[in-house]
Design goal:
Elements lengths: L17 E6 L5 E4 L2 H12 L7 E5 L9 E7 L1 E15 L2 E9 L7 E7 L9 H7 L11 E9 L6 E9 L2 E2 L5 E2 L4 E2 L7 E5 L2 E5 L1 H22 L13 H4 L3
Parallel strand pairs: 1-7
Antiparallel strand pairs: 1-2, 2-4, 3-4, 5-6, 5-8, 6-7, 8-9, 9-10, 11-12, 13-14
């Protein structure tokens, strides 16, 4: 054996990977657990020993109705950079994908997905909440990102959104002053229209405005981070079996 004075070669194995999570209607960011771990977690749940950070739920629709699934649950991303934002069509549904990284060595990219356009042809609550804060987001600055859901005590309706902190400041909507409870900025309002003799709301002007802002932001992120290749989102779930709660 040659004496190389301590000089040697250690094969490098990258631990970098991508983690995919989805924002569910209950505001949790969810990652489906693999089959092997799933059986263990479901058993622990049945025995009343479920670990913190996991949940077990039963699918309510589709061919797998009644099947129990195990999921990791999160509600915050801390000290991360938003490095990419884009939309994709999956199963006839337009979805928003946000890619985060904490910029440490070998840290995985975190893909956070949610519905972008809902069944009412308006922007989903979580996506809308993000888009309305885009003018106040500082690209290249670390952020804390979290999701929430609340019930409006006056209307009884559920509201959903995201919270972003940058430089110890909570980012506010660029289009609504929640202190004065009044609209600001140039975001259009939904229009009340009559269809088939029934009064309803047309959110098209709002959705078009927000989608344009999102596309501008997507390009700005790509320009800043020099994103040359299109990031492809993993199909997290079979929409026909996993979306209902």
């Amino acid at each position: 054996m040659n004496n190389n004075g301590g000089l040697g070669f250690t094969p490098q194995t990258s631990v970098n990977k991508t983690i995919y999570v989805e924002i569910k209607p209950d505001s949790l960011m969810v990652r489906r657990v693999g089959e092997q771990d799933s059986a263990r977690i479901i058993k622990a749940d049945e025995e009343g020993n479920l670990e913190q950070g996991y949940r077990v739920r039963t699918l309510e629709m589709g061919p797998n109705k009644g099947t129990k699934v195990a999921e990791e649950i999160y509600n915050v991303l801390s000290k991360v950079q938003l490095v990419k934002a884009f939309s994709e069509e999956k199963f006839g549904q337009r979805r928003m994908i946000l890619v985060f990284n904490n910029m440490l060595d070998d840290s995985p990219n975190i893909h956070v997905q949610c519905t972008l356009i809902n069944d009412y042809n308006s922007v989903n609550g979580y996506a809308s909440s993000l888009i309305d804060r885009i003018p106040n987001i500082k690209i290249g600055k670390t952020m804390d990102f979290s999701t929430w859901k609340m019930t409006d005590k006056n209307t009884g309706k559920d509201r959903r959104g995201i919270t972003i902190y940058q430089e110890n400041e909570k980012l506010q909507s660029a289009y609504y002053d929640y202190v004065k409870m009044e609209r600001i900025g140039d975001k259009p309002s939904a229009k009340q229209v009559k269809k088939l003799g029934k009064e309803t709301w047309d959110f098209t002007p709002v959705a078009e405005f927000q989608l344009a802002k999102f596309e501008e932001f997507s390009k700005a992120l790509d320009d800043y981070w020099k994103n040359d290749d299109k990031v492809v989102a993993e199909v997290l779930v079979d929409e026909h079996t996993d979306l209902p709660f």
